[in-house]
Amino acid sequence: MATKTQIETNSSSLAVKSILVSQPKPERSPYYKLEEKYGIKIDWRPFIHVEPVSEKEFRKTRIKPDEFTAIIFTSRNSIDHFFGLCEEMRIKMSADTKYFCISATLANYLQKFIVYRKRKVFVGKRLISDLEPYFKKHKSEKYLLPTSNLGSQPVQDFLSSMSINYKEAMMYRTVSSDLSDLADITYDILVFFSPLGIQSLYDNFPDFKQNNTRLAVFGNSTSQAVLEKGLEINIKAPSTEAPSMSMALENYIKEINGEE
Hints:
This protein has about 260 residues and is an alpha/beta fold.
């Protein structure tokens, strides 16, 4: 990315010709219509990725999943890495284990790993607080909360407020990806969706200078991370005019490129 120390535009013109989105490439996306409509190039590259905690490392915690009577899942990653570690450790969870999922999507995904019994799976709508009635009914359970290195503070705060008997277990990590191959590649706009993406940018390019590169950010926490680095936010979403990042980008391209 421009001599490993900065990302800058490859033209004196500020017209948008290339965009890098710091996420994996999706099968379908409104960004593809932007490419076609405005003749721009959009690349996709995840700036962060998830790594499992090794069996050896996890054993040092002395946490044994099969000693818990209930598991709380807050993401697909938590499901994947929980059962991945159980397999590595040759642990078979009891058929009586109860599973608490914060959404129906997670509960459906759980079926890849267990024989689904409705009376053993409890489902929320979206938030951990949605499960409150079930926690009240099953307060005597011994709960395990699989998490990443980032933790699940809102979830932990809620469980603690209910005096739930639970144990947090770090089973996977969210880490910065290696972006060294992008050192000499230039983009007009970089798109970020989380503070971790900004951290990855600086992990890979500690001397990053914004120069003419435009930054598009989604959400307040991402915006705060950008400002803390002394960078300028050029495109922000969501907003009243642009509830999505693709809309925010299109509005900006229209204005800068002078297209309708």
